[in-house]
């Protein structure tokens, strides 16, 4: 969006986040896009420079770079954040495999330096808030990677997995996501909600945690609930709450979830 502010009409923001897109469209061109889908044909090979900030899981880093490679012209530049060497024990092995993968994908490392620092988001504050040593000060630091595309679409061997669809609601500065999925637990008219792992707040930010598969209602402050039944009733309540700003029905668990 900085390019648009400087009068360059060719910059495009691709994001899946509705709130981010609404804000970006005030000053530039923004397209709703899920990285697990193929790049739209009209955008392939169109850009001289692509900037990405992928989640810090190895498969996600490769997926985002593969998508960036498809967007970028031959001879173009890709900038990406990377998890730093102290992020996790397996990072050195991942880096070695990553370098080989870049070569197979027609990408050359032009620069790599540690300079990325992240603010602690609200969901992480909630997840780690009961740890005495956790102050909320920025602690996650990563590397900044510059790549040159030498040819091809890149993305050798990258596979995508089908992702669940989430319905999004906004309540002030808080956002709530409802898993939109057909399943046995959504059958029945009566709304029944239960805790996930015995807590209203998920005490981790890792999507690899086995509890993540049980989450049907998730807030931007890491509050979570499982839907035992009554999906349609819950959706109706959230739709009405989003319009009026008032919660009508849903019981104590839903009220506690929205207040967390």
Short structural summary:
The chain has 260 residues and is α+β, with helices and mostly antiparallel strands.
Explain the layout of strands and helices.
Blueprint: H1 2-5, E1 12-15, H2 18-24, E2 29-32, E3 47-52, H3 58-71, E4 72-83, H4 91-104, E5 107-118, H5 122-128, E6 140-149, E7 165-171, E8 174-180, E9 192-194, E10 217-219, E11 224-229, H6 231-244, H7 251-259
Parallel strand pairs: 1-2, 3-4
Antiparallel strand pairs: 4-6, 5-6, 7-8, 8-10, 9-11, 10-11
Instruction: Give the total of beta strands.
Output: 11
- Briefly note the CATH topology name of the largest domain: Rossmann fold
Judged by helices, strands and strand pairing, the structural class is alpha+beta
Distance between the termini: 33 Å
Provide the low-confidence segments as ranges.
Answer: none
CATH architecture of the largest domain: 3-Layer(aba) Sandwich
Shape: globular
| Biggest β-sheet strands, sense, barrel | 5 strands, antiparallel
Which strand order spans the largest sheet, edge to edge or round the barrel? 7-8-10-11-9
Helix/strand order = HEHEEHEHEHEEEEEEHH
> What is the top-level CATH class of the largest domain?
Alpha Beta
The DSSP helix count reads 7
Strand content: 25-35%
Task: Give me the CATH superfamily of the largest domain.
Answer: Vaccinia Virus protein VP39
Radius of gyration: 21 Å
Overall pLDDT metric: 86
Bin the helical content. Answer: 25-40%
Structural domain count: 2
């Amino acid at each position: 969006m900085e390019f648009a502010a400087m009068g360059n009409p060719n910059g495009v923001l691709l994001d899946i986040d509705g709130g981010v897109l609404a804000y970006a469209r005030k000053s530039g061109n923004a397209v709703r896009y899920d990285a697990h889908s193929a790049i739209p044909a009209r955008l392939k090979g169109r850009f001289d420079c692509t900037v990405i900030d992928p989640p810090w899981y190895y498969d996600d880093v490769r997926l985002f770079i593969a998508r960036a490679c498809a967007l970028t012209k031959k001879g173009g530049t890709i900038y990406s954040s990377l998890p730093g060497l102290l992020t996790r024990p397996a990072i050195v092995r991942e880096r070695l495999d990553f370098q080989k993968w870049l070569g197979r994908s027609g990408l050359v490392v032009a620069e790599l330096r540690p300079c990325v620092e992240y603010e602690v988001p609200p969901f992480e504050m909630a997840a780690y808030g009961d740890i005495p040593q956790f102050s909320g000060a920025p602690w996650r630091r990563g590397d900044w990677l510059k790549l040159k595309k030498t040819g091809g679409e890149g993305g050798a061997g990258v596979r995508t997995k089908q992702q669940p669809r989430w319905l999004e609601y906004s309540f002030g500065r808080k956002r709530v996501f409802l898993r939109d999925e057909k399943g046995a637990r959504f059958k029945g008219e009566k709304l029944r909600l239960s805790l996930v792992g015995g807590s209203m707040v998920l005490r981790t930010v890792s999507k690899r945690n086995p509890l993540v598969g049980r989450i049907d209602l998730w807030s931007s402050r890491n509050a979570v609930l499982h839907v035992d039944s009554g999906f349609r009733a819950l959706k109706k309540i959230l739709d009405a709450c989003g319009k009026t700003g008032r919660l009508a029905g849903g019981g104590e668990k839903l009220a506690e979830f929205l207040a967390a």
